[in-house]
Amino acid sequence: MRVTVIVIDSFGIGALPDAEKFGDEGANTALHICEQIPGPKWPALRKMGLGNCAKLLGFNLSGCEAVENPSADYGVMAERSPGKDTTTGHWEIAGIVLDKPFRIFPQDYPSFPEELVIAFEQKTGCKMLGNKAASGTVIIEELGNEHIETGYPICYTSADSVFQIAAHEGVIPVDELYRICEAARKLCDRYNVARVIARPFVGKPGGFKRTGARKDFSIALPEKCLMDHLSASGIKTIGVGKIGSLFNEQGLTESYHDSGNPACLERTISLMSSPSSEPEFLFVNLVDTDMLYGHRRDVGGYFQAVNEIDTALSEMIGLVKKGDLLVITADHGCDPAYRGTDHTREYVPLLVYRGGRCMESGGEATDVKKGSDPESTGAMRNLGIRESFADVAQSICSWFSLSPIKEGVSFL
User: Fold this and answer.
1) Can you give the pTM of this predicted structure?
2) Per-residue pLDDT reduced to its tens digit, 224-242
3) Among residues 74, 70, 69, which one has the least CA distance to residue 56?
């Protein structure tokens, strides 16, 4: 028995009712991509019911419309935690609902409090360049030459709760950059900052390029997460991509820090192809949609990244055996057609594919509240509008016949 959860990072599907509080009224990642890219889109996701998810919220996805017989249970989820960042979203998927948001630093110079700057420079022995919100690629080009000349790291933030440290690998070796980030992580704990991120780069002025040696240093989890509950019950837990960093490896039996969607998709297919003699949970983050295209407001690039995921999904679906579960969702939005470069506060899609259930033609979609037994009828269910991402964690516990956890309502 294997449960696989794939998070298409930032693939939102419509502004939440409280989006105005976050400055995100009218954002809709999936819709705006579909509106700007003509023609049919994402056949695997469409067949599973991505368009049906959109229909629950009252709109149609052009080229990825609702289908009469989706091959998966479908719904959308609202985030209960007060945030729209990667850590908050993933933690809630894993059953941790926060009651207060992480610290967001001001966007203009100086972004970091003076006492944090002083403590950082004393603790690391490094003066700080930057100290403002910026795109990583932009600030590296802006300050990269000064960094090479002085040896000082480039420290910057964004609209997320992050303290990012960029350094040329020829000036500050990667291991040393990690040491600096570990020191910064301890300092940032008191400010409730979600992540400290190491951003190594190489090259020369005018041609700098970030490397795959990025590393996230997450704030400690406030309580046990889904993987803790699963591993304590003898279930193998595997993280792919950013998962290990976001959860500080907590509760994970294995962790693969593959960089970029192609490597993560290849790893996921390899793991799903391998027979397992024990129950297994596979948690995957696909970051490129967010990092490379959402923040850079690249609609075409975002569309193509989802297209590549869709192609891989066609192969993954064939690997889902009877008794297995494949869940496709997201952690927040990052509408590439919206203003600014920030994440957007959105619903996320929920597609739940069960091995052995009418996999080719799908079944008649039924309302989950009507109490039909999908295992006996083959019907795909309308899971409705869920009130928390934590419903995923609760449902996985239910699927493995474990005791309920504190948060979430099972849709199984």
Assistant:
1) 0.90
2) 999 999 999 999 999 999 9
3) 74
